[in-house]
């Protein structure tokens, strides 16, 4: 937040957020703040506490590296830069859709760190979407193969993983739930804030939504049905509707399919901003050349096996 005072009109009573990280309460708002601050913080509408800030923008507070650094600072010890802990790992992940069926994925190993942007490339049918769904928990990975912040995701609920990971589907229509562009964009943050239909959204959220609509060039179409949009506009809206909620990881399944060059630039801006704020990003694409100017690394999927192209290149040198 910049040097100004922002008011969060969460119906009544009101929260007044001062920029230097102070929260002032106007009237009998303590119960509201106690009840809603975690959700407001997760949406980036309140300054995060120090441990959460050290770990990046995601919703679940400080990771091991962040809390260790905070603890060291609290004890007056010099800060030593901690090695970043992986956000996501796959260790020997194989997968078949049915018992006895041929494996779609074979011994996939990967590591993803906070703030890392990966392109996942490969031929049609090579297993990219299947892998991304296993990573998100939309398909159940075998025990001991996928780890989120060091913990086996087989022990995590989809509800928890969805609070940490935003997934943009290959077909935008699979994702749309609202009857206008504006409501679509605000659907997830309103749900996370548990706002009732009659509750106005907080001013910060409204402003963020307006900024995102402008960023994807849809500011003039707030009242249109998402289904009336062009194919490229639908993709941009589905990406923005997920990326409006701060997450630790975003997975985008072929978001560039059918988008023109201008649309790709708008999408790239959204992704760059998310990564700049510390989120990791996995983008499935058949057009890696569109991201040549960005700080991205590539994984390549071939018949269910994953290769890290940068790692292989580094070994060759
Ligand atoms: N629900 C399913 N049941 C059985 N097989 C499936 C299912 N979903 C996908 N497959 C098969 O798994 C393989 C990998 O599919 P997947 O969709 O992961 O590939 P992809 O690399 O994402 O392809 P594309 O680039 O065409 O989107 C394909 O052979 C596909 O037919």
UniProtKB/TrEMBL annotation:
Domain of life: Bacteria
The keyword Membrane is annotated on this UniProt entry: yes
Coiled-coil ranges per UniProt: none
Domain ABC transporter: 88-317
Molecular function GO labels: ATP binding; ATP hydrolysis activity; ATPase-coupled transmembrane transporter activity
Keywords, comma-separated and alphabetical: ATP-binding, Cell membrane, Membrane, Nucleotide-binding, Translocase, Transport
GO CC entries: membrane
SUPFAM superfamilies assigned to the protein according to its UniProt record, in alphabetical order: P-loop containing nucleoside triphosphate hydrolases
Alphabetical list of Pfam families matching this protein: ABC_tran
InterPro entries, alphabetized: AAA+_ATPase, ABC_transporter-like_ATP-bd, ABC_transpr_CbiO/EcfA_su, ECF_ABC_transporter_ATP-bd, P-loop_NTPase
Region Disordered, annotated ranges: 51-73
PANTHER family: ABC TRANSPORTER I FAMILY MEMBER 11, CHLOROPLASTIC, HEAVY METAL TRANSPORTER
UniProt record similarity statement: Belongs to the ABC transporter superfamily.
Protein name: Energy-coupling factor ABC transporter ATP-binding protein
Species for this entry: Paenibacillus mellifer
